[in-house]
Amino acid sequence: MTAGRTVFALIVGMVAIGPLSTDLYLPSLPAIGKALDADVAHVQLTLSAYMCAFALVQLVYGPLSDRYGRRPVAIAGIAIYTLASLACALAPTIEALIWGRAGQAAGACAGVVLGRAIVRDVYGRDGAARALAIVGSIMAFAPAIGPIFGGFIEVAFGWRWNFVLLLGFALVLLAGLVFGLDETNAHKDPAATDPGRMLRNFALLLASRTYLGYALVVSLCYGGFFAFISGSPFVLIEVLGLSPPEYAGFFLLCVIGYVVGAQLTVRLSKSWGSDKLLRLGTCLNVTGGAAMLFVATAGFATPGLIGATLLTAPMMVYMAGMGIVLPNGQGAALGPYPTMAGAASALMGFLQMATAALTGIVFGALHAGGTTALPAIVLACGAAAFVSFALLAKR
Q: Does position 32 have pLDDT exceeding 50, yes or no?
């Protein structure tokens, strides 16, 4: 098998390509609208199209990798991403950019799905949670530094160069996969891509109380985080009056909370085990969400740095819980399925993305210019994750 450091570096690159594709170009959205003569709704479609394609296409990559192996499917996915990135960089119209973004998602989701599956192949059930926690620690800063770096590129070179940078990253990753990755799937299933078999595999996974419980814990916990991603700019900037640089600083604090939780998993996974850590993580989710809602409803979330600090500090607690929940929940969900780890990873990814999209929609419907809708959604997601673990996943 390929040397451990090489495999791990490739896994990080495969997982990184998803968030980088979203975060890097966010500061360029207004410039894209002006350059391509598009209104806000059409520019926002570059995000929506990416999310929808990402959620759906990953359901295909899992079974394909269970049949043909992780390596060829990963190479094909990143190759698609490479071509789509070139199309985005050269897009003459907003419609072309929207289709290019959908193509990017169709390729990027291969990295996320297969990265998790390769972790399961290489590190096994017991080591998967620890490996995913280390990957999560490394990747935790992508949402914080992506917009900052993307903004610098926008100012210095223009919006198209964000996609040129993603193209370069994809070429490096593609070369690494071609020359540095051996096949990790030792249990190829020739029938994994049969439509009936695919449906039966997905039905089998959904019928498993344990798998569904762990997948829901991961999805609901991530849903609370995505609600914060989509809602915090409106709350912290528009309602509480922070400037964009101040907002970036508060978001970075939340990311630090995630790193703390991931490091706890790295240190305690062997002695505590996944279930004990998941209990701790979901309790932190509930605690953080409840404290955040209390600050909002008690009137402490006033405009200015103090109010923003009081409202955001509990989110650090929630994020610490997420740093524990995600790697342990993902590892526990995939652990019992070595022969269809790809399908299990793909289905979990679909549930995670669908839940995230739903929380964003709910925030848009509930937000009325105040501070209570966001923490209410965060608390609801944390509480639902706790209940899913207690009633379904807990062995």
A: yes
